[in-house]
Amino acid sequence: MESTASLAEKTLDAHDRLNAVYGIQTIYGRTDPMHELIGTILSHRTTHANEVTAYRTMRERFPTWENVRDAPLAELIDAIKTANYPEVKAPYIQNVLAHLIQETGAANVDFLADLSTEDAMQWLTNLPGIGLKTATLLLLFNFRKPVLPVDTHVHRVTQRVGLIGPKVSAEKAHSILLSYLPKDATVLFNFHKHFYWHGQRVCTWYDPKCSECALRDMCAYYQSGCRMSLSSTPTRKK
Ligand code: SF4
């Protein structure tokens, strides 16, 4: 088993290699934090195009966040139906808005900028339906807080390379990977973006393109002959 120091070194090495492949980005995100918050809920297991359509339709039919909160559930489900699981997401969204408006008096999360990273994380994850992924995306992309979102691509690629163990959950990966990286929002943004893109373009769910991968010589999954059992990757159905 690799030591923490060597895993940290390997993580920084992988980060440097993907910086070279994809180029270092400045942090960008949606300009409206409320759009990021609600859009992230809509985006779960949904293509970007369908998320955009769901968000736009919802805002057209219910122009204020209070309108969304008070909308008849069936109508909100219909408005966001291009997103997968609209019947689950609609009550989540209404619940989040109800709590937010009740606690702060407005559908606005700009106050998070003035909280410490820990307090902002705690506040967000106390909202119903807001998990680590949504909270970290919002805090990193919109408020430049030093946190690391681990979505399905980041989870799968870091697991295959061997930066985290083969059974480590995405939730645990947040803190493990964060402990290996500098607490710098730009570094963490680039780490997230690059592993996300690598998972979309090269280290795909099925048939990863190992022959063109910059991480191949350090990759545990490749070295196992692509036979390693990982919690992030389902067994392929024949
Ligand atoms: S070598 Fe293959 S399995 Fe490993 S990270 Fe690259 S594409 Fe993914």
UniProtKB/TrEMBL annotation:
Provide one Gene Ontology biological process annotation: base-excision repair
Extract the InterPro entries matched here: DNA_glycosylase, Endonuclease3_FeS-loop_motif, HhH-GPD_domain, HhH_base_excis_C
Cofactor entry = [4Fe-4S] cluster
Q: Which residues form the HhH-GPD domain?
A: 42-201
* One annotated GO molecular function: hydrolase activity
Sorted alphabetically, which keywords does the UniProt record give? Endonuclease, Hydrolase, Iron, Iron-sulfur, Metal-binding, Nuclease
- Listed Pfam families: HhH-GPD
> Does the record carry Metal-binding as a key word?
yes
Q: Could you tell me what this protein is called?
A: Endonuclease III
The species this protein belongs to is: Spirosoma terrae
